[in-house]
Write a structure and sequence with these properties.
single chain; 453 residues; 5-stranded parallel beta sheet; 26 strands
């Protein structure tokens, strides 16, 4: 057991990382590869058994990506890179005794497999990521689906296939029936837009998987955004191009539409309009998990993000770092570091260097965020975005094949970061082969056959 080991003559330096997302997993690999197990004990605590890159969840939800083939098992990854994986969720923190308390581990039937227990640390990195912000709007948590993790993406895909089957059976029985699958997506950021486009990509392929009378014409997607336009982080010209592309696919894009209540199969706007939908996805805003607001005195903001200094150390404890979407790091210009995968990657690298400096008694280096721009993929239809960010004092607008190539490169960079160059390059090559040999949708027939019974 990791916790409460007797004091040895030369106790290993224990670095605990909570959260195995893009930032946490990369940091665990860097530290494990650097120190190994001889004098250090690198521990990764994560509530899931496998890792899937969060920007891919919209493809998992639409069924166009088989996460079982793209996920990374923490146990095998830890064995390869010299860190230990511990399945569990953070429950509380004891800073005085330098221990994290891991919540009880329960089986699917509710049976307790392991009681709550403590794991000591010499240095702690919190990288638990973010969750979708429901802004306390009534009914959202009860009636909307979210895409914060693999389980939620799978749940959406199953319900989507069920609705597609319903429409297909109705159309088969009555060719004159005018049935549709209505999906309402709230949030005009990258997640909502990429999901909306990916749904049409998947719908067009369903006719090849047993639903001969179903196609993208049977799909109705409504994208709601409370702001004046979608993609506010991108230049207005690119946002307009994405808007036009979505409309051409069949998406009803509705900016300046604020939701005040969610009900079963319908949304209510601030003007009293009721918007129906068989599936309702909430993808508006990001916040940190609520439990971070009660972690033994750590300073948090209104979104429960842990406030950190420029060195990414918490404001009250030099031995505790926070990275990624769960932290609030203010840049010199007064703006916070945005919740993006590139930010988590840069924070992981900065924390790796600062942990080494801290253990050596050297001065830590302030984190500097380099904005490399933003890209949004509209599935196989288009890609838009801006590159270089503030590196050259402005932005370069990109669309089409160049933007698509760069967007795919982001995931390849992630593979290199968590697997190393050689293994990452091999996986990239395998991915190119799988594009040809894999089915376009994740085994929808097996799910549909189960529903039919």
């Amino acid at each position: 057991m990791l916790a409460d080991q007797p004091t040895a003559k030369a106790r290993k330096t224990q670095i605990v990382i909570v959260g195995g997302g893009a930032g946490g997993l990369e940091l665990a690999r860097l530290l494990g590869a650097r120190f190994g197990r001889k004098n250090h004990d690198i521990v990764l605590i994560e509530r899931n058994l496998t890792h899937i890159w969060k920007p891919l969840l919209h493809e998992v939800a639409a069924g166009s990506l088989d996460a079982n083939l793209d996920e990374v098992g923490y146990r095998s990854h830890g064995h390869r890179w010299g860190y230990r994986f511990f399945l569990g969720s953070l429950q509380s923190l004891d800073r005085k005794r330098r221990k994290v308390i891991v919540a009880p581990l329960v089986d699917v039937d509710g049976t307790e497999l392991m009681a709550a227990h403590a794991i000591r640390y010499d240095y702690l990195v919190l990288a638990v990521g973010g969750v979708t912000n429901d802004f306390n709007i009534p009914g959202v948590r009860e009636h909307c689906l979210f895409l914060d993790d693999r389980e939620q993406a799978d749940a959406f895909r199953h319900r989507l296939l069920n609705q597609c089957l319903r429409v297909s059976r109705t159309m088969s029985a009555d060719a004159e029936a005018d049935e549709h699958v209505c999906v309402t997506v709230v949030g005009g950021g990258a997640t909502g837009i990429e999901l909306a486009a990916e749904l049409y990509n998947s719908a067009s392929a369903l006719r090849h998987y047993g639903l001969e009378v179903f196609d993208e014409k049977r799909l109705q997607v409504t994208l709601l955004e409370s702001g004046p336009r979608i993609l506010p982080a991108l230049p207005e010209k690119l946002a307009a191009a994405a808007h036009d592309e979505l409309e051409a696919l069949g998406v009803s894009v509705r900016p300046a539409t604020r939701i005040v209540e969610a009900r079963a199969h319908e949304m209510v706007t601030d003007e009293g309009e009721v918007i129906p939908g068989h599936l309702q996805v909430w993808a508006a805003g990001v916040k940190a998990p609520d439990f971070l607001g009660s972690l033994d005195g750590l300073e948090t903001n209104a979104r429960c993000q842990i406030v950190v200094r420029p060195t990414l150390q918490t404001t009250v404890d030099d031995r505790i770092f926070a990275i990624g979407d769960c932290c609030f790091c203010e840049l010199p210009d007064g703006k916070p570091v945005p919740p993006r995968a590139q930010a988590a990657h840069q924070m992981a690298s900065a924390t790796y260097r600062n942990l080494i400096r801290l253990m050596r008694g050297r001065e830590l280096i302030p984190f500097r965020y380099h904005d490399h721009g933003s890209l949004v993929s509209l599935s196989r239809f288009s890609t838009v975005g801006s590159l270089m960010g503030n590196l050259i004092g402005g932005r370069i607008a990109v669309e089409g094949r160049i933007a698509g190539f760069v967007y795919k490169s982001l995931y390849r960079m992630h593979l290199l970061a968590i697997h190393g160059f050689l293994r990452g390059a091999i996986l990239i090559l395998i991915g190119r082969v799988n594009i040809v040999v894999r089915p376009k949708l994740k085994a929808p027939l097996s799910r549909l056959a189960w529903v039919a019974r």
